[in-house]
Every structure is written in structure tokens, then in C-alpha cells.
Predict the 3D structure of the following.
Amino acid sequence: MRSTGKKTRGAFDRAGFSIGGGFQDQSDTEIARDLDAMKSAGAHWVRMDVNWSVIQSAGPSSYDWARFDRVAVAAASRGFTVLAEILYTPVWARAAGAPAESPPANLEDYARFARAAVAHYAPLGIHAYEVWNEPNNAAFWKPKADVARYTAMLKVAYPAIKSADPAAVVVSGGMSPAVDGGTNISPLTFLRGIYANGGKGFFDAVGHHPYCYPAYPGDAQAWSAWYQMYGTSPSLRSIMADNGDSGKQIWATEFGAPTNGPSGTFVGEQTQATMLTRAFDLFQTYDWAGPMFWYSQRDVGTTMETQENFYGILRHDFSAKPAFAAYATATGAR
């Protein structure tokens, strides 16, 4: 087993929230209330969508930043550092009949938008960007994951982002805890594929989503996306080291556990709190770890059809789950 690369624990000052794709569609009052709650929990970072399919829905020469600017400005006014996730393809840029979760037909269209987005948001204080979301998962890279195509996206996006903001940090798209199959690619295989396709030098940090429930962070389970960061053979860290990238960080751009939903798909609220505490306690000890973004700050709904409604540390009505106090304790906010 490779070393975890541990250092000592303290108040976790790289904690953030991944706020989800519908956040910008809330009222100003709800956005403010959510961000204030995140601030009171001790968060330093916010990961927000910059949704290309919305911003350029009217065509390649049209930009409508308004909804996303509201979030960026409100986050900056509270002192948050923002990671902007550039994702989803507008109708005009994708193949006929393809959904927004598909890559563009011409990757240069993505690069041009990324350059424009960085030029727009750098003056608002955003200097960290994630290239897509879960590209190893067919749910976000339709019709199926394609590491060669994604690496080609990195190769055009990285110089475009740097041309608009040379100091920007570029994070590869956070990988989901998938397994190798007909449509998905495991994080280990996907990262090896990025390097095999010449992706080294086209990202500053590796994005990863180390979801692992019902296991706990750190449990020695080969299937656990958490343990795959350092404990399996190979691991994400060993793959990075083998390719001369041991000096780069892994950013956990999503991590969490739902507290309700269909039977067998969630953990209890107290278990969520324990998982959060363990995650933050462990992640800050890894010398290769960057920021960690809890998904999410608040439940997006109340219906039981899906566990996706219940990842928050606040319930939908803003009442606190035990994980809210656990977050504040981990960050030193209380």
C-alpha cells in the first residue's frame, strides 16, 4: 500500500461546499440565506456551475451571465473563494438530438467559451476552474465516457483558460466512483487514460469525487473512491507519481452522503455527521490534498423518490442536521 502522505490535524481551512446545478435559479433571498449558512459553518470555498448551455443558449455570439453573476458576486461579498465548473453544451454546439451532458461536436467551441468565461469572471475574483463534471460517467458524458475525447478537451481548455488568466488553477473534471463497464470508466482507469492520451501538463490539480458510503472515509475497501486515492494498487496517487505529477494535488470537488431516499440508498443523519467529521479530519492530513467540497449545503427537495434530494447538511427548510454542527466543529467555526 502506498503512503497516505499524512500531516497533523487542525481546523480544516480548505473546506467548501459544492452547491449544485440549480443554485443560481433560486431567489436572491434564498441564495443569501444559503451562503450565510455556509459562512457560519466555516466554509472557505464554494464550487459553482458556469453552465455553458444556459449562458450561450441563444447562439455562439450571445452571452447571458446574469444568473451566475448573482452567485459569484454574492459569494465574493462574503469572502468565499470560488471554484467555477465549466460544463454542459448548448444546443447549437452539440450533435443533433444530443443532450446538454454531451461534449461539443467541436471542442474548440468549448475552449472559446472557457476563455470568455475566465475573462468575465477573473475581474470578479474567480481564479480556479474545473473542466467539466464526472467525465468518466455516462450520466455527464453522453452517450458513454470517452477518456481520449475528454483529454482532447483538456488540451484545448487549459491553454484557453491560461490565456485569459495566467494565474488560474485548472482542475481536471472531478471523477465519479464508477466501475469499468460498457459506458462508465473507473477513476483509476480514467486517470491512466488521461496520461496515456497526452494529458500531462494540461491540468494543475486532479479533480475527484471520493464518495464512499456506506463505507467510511479511510476504510480499506478496494471499491471505495476514497481509498482509491492512496490505498489501492494502483491508486490515483501512484498513477500521478508514475507520471511525474506527485507534486500536484487532488481536489475533492464533491463528497457527501444522503440522509434519505429509497430504501438502501442513504445513511442516517448521525452517520452523515460522523462521515463528515472523519472525512475532514483525514483529508487535511494528506500532504497531497487540496480543498474539499461537501455536497451539499442544503437538501434540494423533500420527495422520497431519489436520494439526490437529501445530500444537504441542512434540511430543505433550513433546519440543521447533525452534520451542520460537525462541519462547524471541523472548520473551527465553533
Notes: The CA atoms of residues 144 and 183 lie 4 Å apart. The chain has one domain: 15-331. DSSP finds nine helices and eight strands in the chain.
